[in-house]
Amino acid sequence: MAPPKDVVKIAVQMVGAIPQLIELQQSKPLAAVLKDICDAWSLPNAERFALQHADGRQTYITESNRGEIKNGSILWLTTSPDQEAEGLYAGIQSNNLDVKADSLKRLANLSQDVTFAQEFINRNGLKQIFSIVEEGNHTGEILAHTLKAFMELMEHDFVSWETLSAAFIKKIVSYVNMSVMDASVQQLSLSILENMVPSSRVLFELVRKEVTVDRLLTHLQVTNTQLQLKAMALLIALLLAATDAERWEMMAYLRERNIRQFIHKNIIHSSEPLGDEMAHYLYVLQSISLNLHERRMRTPMDPYSQEQRELLQSLRQAAFEPESEMSSSSASTERRRSLCAKEFHKLGFVNNSNPAQDLYRAPPGLLALDNMVYFSRHTPNAYSRFVLENSSREDKHECPFARSSIQLTLILCEILHVGEPCSETAQAFYPMFFGQDHFFEELFCICIQLVNKTWKEMRATQEDFDKVLQVVREQITRTLSLKPTSLELFKTRVNVLNYSEILKLRQTERLHQEETLAVPVLVLRERLKPELLELIRQQRLLRLCEGTLFRKISSRRRQDKLWYCRLSPNHKVLHYGDVEEGVSSPPIESLPEKIPVADMKALLVGKECPHTKEKSSGKQNKDVLELAFSIVYDVEEYCLNFIAPTRYEFCLWTDGLNMLLGKEMTSERTQTDLDVLLSMELKLRLLDLENISIPDTPPPVPKPPSNLNFCYDFSHAEQ
């Protein structure tokens, strides 16, 4: 007979005692359960004890989390959280340095548990931690354990960061600013400051004032990758918390100090592989830098602005000044106005009498004007060649420089996501971005010359303008997808990908599409689908068995904490648990938590997930919604919440979990993989039919002959 649903069979252990196998009634008060367990071992004062998970994070069992206990769980009978908190509170005040160090080390470990943390904080334990730091009598191991314990306690949000004393903050800042200091202490100090920055404006200003950008750049130049990572994290936190004006100022100073070249040389191209966290910070730095163009991009031209009118006139003067001087000395005002209109027409402005009207549209707004002026000033020969070359063509065949520049600027803004908020999880950055100052402008200079080159290759007319820019967009996106490491390499590759190459690629894709649309081929596709879908299913399950490293994300910041989840080889149990940084594929035995597949009830994705409902619903969380999924399991309907590292991993996991639940694979990756496999299989099957047209209907079967006398009779031959 099956046990009642509110009863779980567990083992309880205690050092030096024979384990107890008990049936735990979930409806029974926890104090009564502890009394029974203590009585079985003849232990007095049951209120001084508590139950704790024996594996994993060894969290204390409370009335609120006791529902997580499963059949077969192993628990420890240990000292209660209030007793532990009281003991450690006394231990960290001990004059014996060994006792103090051990107490702080244990405090750092136990503070991960919310129940213990609350007990310790209620005893004013943080005040003791503050005093250890503020007195400044300890360094090395004791100080590192103190800072680690402080970080863990603050993680639970019982205490606001704004309550920290000025003396404590100054000490933390001093550890960061010291030239000689234990690396682990500096790492923890940088993490503390990173958490402080977004919590309040006052703390942001304090940290920005006390920890200079120069000091952070010094930390970025060390060989210790963890210290480098924490310094980058604080720099990014400062940039994200700054106002637009402060961000402009900080980025200008970073450009002055050549941070891009340093990152390009010492981080991107270092001997150490680039971790996910650093890749994210580089993506954010790239995004912040590109978003500095947003203000100009969203500002239309003001025809009454003297500065903007002068920039516009400088374009004309750079291309036609000699001609203008010869004509304007004796010409009337009307004649000069007519000449200017003619020259603006040659420059490719649609409204040549009032070219400012072309720049009213925002985006790209004034950013297009900035790009044109940059091109004319930094590559004057290329600029003059572009304008004069097209001036000598017929009107309908000339490539309009201004119109092309405005549209190209808009295309680059869309491709590079200028003006879009930073993603919380993305890691996609362009290595070449960090190898070049004025990246956006330099990229524009390459691409505007590409427009002219493609225009000539297409022998385009004014009616083909949109087609040419569509081809240019394709050339840019295809080249960027190759992740060139420098702008020079980008320039080489994008110029090799000329119009004829684009046509070949399109033709190949079109032929493949036409080939696969023939009726017999469509029938063959349908026959192959079940076999290939089974192959995809096997791949998904294998991927779940290999497992994935997931990152915990809070509302305050990207967490350093990692956890791993994988499916057992027999596809019956999901194993998961916390892991340390640097562990790529932990063995299944080291993952303490388990969810039987049979207990899984449903899969939730996106907005349906409980952990996405807890977060604010701003634009910045859109990417988190796209990567979030949750497993609902057990009769109590608990949830295990995930945020996938990439969209690819999201698709693999949701497909695999849907299969385990007996449902269809629904991700977009399934269709993509199926199309790729079908394409490969069809190409192999149709290899012998190359250059042979496949009829839509099979040829008719001929009628049988009137007689079979034509058949050779072997019996006569034998005689």
Uncertain spans: 323-330
| Count of strand segments | 11
Mean pLDDT: 87
Quickly count the helices.
30
The quaternary state of the protein chains shown equals single chain
Radius of gyration: 34 Å
Strand order of the largest sheet: 2-1-4-3
Q: Strand pairing plus helix content: what structural class?
A: alpha+beta
Proportion of β residues?
Answer: 5-15%
Main sheet properties: 4 strands, mixed
What does it look like?
This protein folds into four domains: 7-79, Ubiquitin-like (UB roll) (Roll), CATH 3.10.20.90; 83-277, Leucine-rich Repeat Variant; 298-320 and 337-509, no CATH class; 530-671, PH-domain like, CATH 2.30.29.30. The protein is 54% helix and 10% strand. The chain contains 30 helices and eleven strands. The strands form three sheets. It has a four-stranded mixed beta sheet with strand order 2-1-4-3. The longest helix is centred in the last third of the chain and has 28 residues, at 519-546. The radius of gyration is 34 Å and the shape is flat. Residues 323-330 have low confidence and may be disordered.
